[in-house]
Amino acid sequence: VIAHPMLIFSPEELKAILRDKDIPWREDASNSDPRFTRNRIRNELMPHLAEVYNPQIRDKLADSAAILWQSEQYILDKAMRRFKKICLESSGNRIILSIPDLLKAAPIERFYLLRNAYRLLHGTTQDFFQSNLSEIESILCAQGSKYISLPHGIYAVKRYQELLFSNVSEDIRVAEVEDLIIESERSRVVHMDHRFSFKYLKVLPAEIEEMDGYKVILDADKIVGKIRIRSRRDGDRFIPFGMNGFKKLKDFFIDEKVAKYDRDTIPIFADEEKILWVCPFRLDNRVRYDESSSRFLSIEAESLIKKSNRAASRKKRGTNEFDEL
After folding, report:
1. Which has the closest alpha carbon to 154: 184, 127, 180, 178?
2. 222 part of a folded domain
3. How many domains are contained in the chain?
4. Which position among 1, 46, 164, 283 has the lowest Cβ density within 10 Å, counted as fewest Cβ atoms?
5. Calpha distance 267→305 (Å, rounded)
6. Which helix (H) or strand (E) element contains residue 209?
7. What pLDDT, in 10s, does the model give residues 211-237?
8. What is the DSSP track for 7-45?
């Protein structure tokens, strides 16, 4: 940090101080070079403004700068206190913030919150600008997982309702989500940014409405063991509805044009032997019902990503010092 304790004084005041201390005045030769913007402002613009518009322009600008500095300190103090509340994890390589809580902050406060997360990894706030704020905000409300690259090898990764700052490139891939096992008595669960409803039926409805990808009916007797909801795994394959042969899940996502960094956020329904449903894309052909089916399972999914009023699950997973922002 370079401090300039004499910046508040005019050249005339500085020269008077030096004369009083019997110190000779020294002028840097570059101070008169008009090729430098600072010199054109000091030697051309400021005298012109003082002569044509306001003789007190220097004092007015100094007063405004003082007010802006005090305003910034107020916002910094407020942002520092909020940061302690919205930070879910803080370690040497990772900072995790709660997105719902982050979005509650005013835009100007979000700038300082995000800049502080960047600072905790980089060591300084150098090279974090308004443009970086805009880039990060563009992924906060985006569907699925997204990431952007920040200066000095730092990444901002949006995963579910969390914003991860990391300088570890492997963190670009969204961490695997723990499997959720569906107990038979449960009729509704929330997992992977979705709410899922389950209903067992003995007969099909008289009229089956046209279903989109978020609602399926399958043969309950073809399910082996308990149902679990999980993210994709290496080597996953299934038989897409209407097909007879296996297809790698990776190839299926490519054919469906699912973005690379969204694939870890797709809920996969599976039993103890096979995939049942790739939500909301395709049911597995092995669990489709037919004329011989006597028991059915209806599953309906609802995306919660755009539910802005959903309560955020906040679990403190670490502590750190949150000094200056």
Report:
1. 127
2. yes
3. 3
4. 1
5. 13
6. none
7. 667 899 999 999 999 999 998 888 999
8. TTS-HHHHHHHHHHTT------GGGG-TTSHHHHIIIII
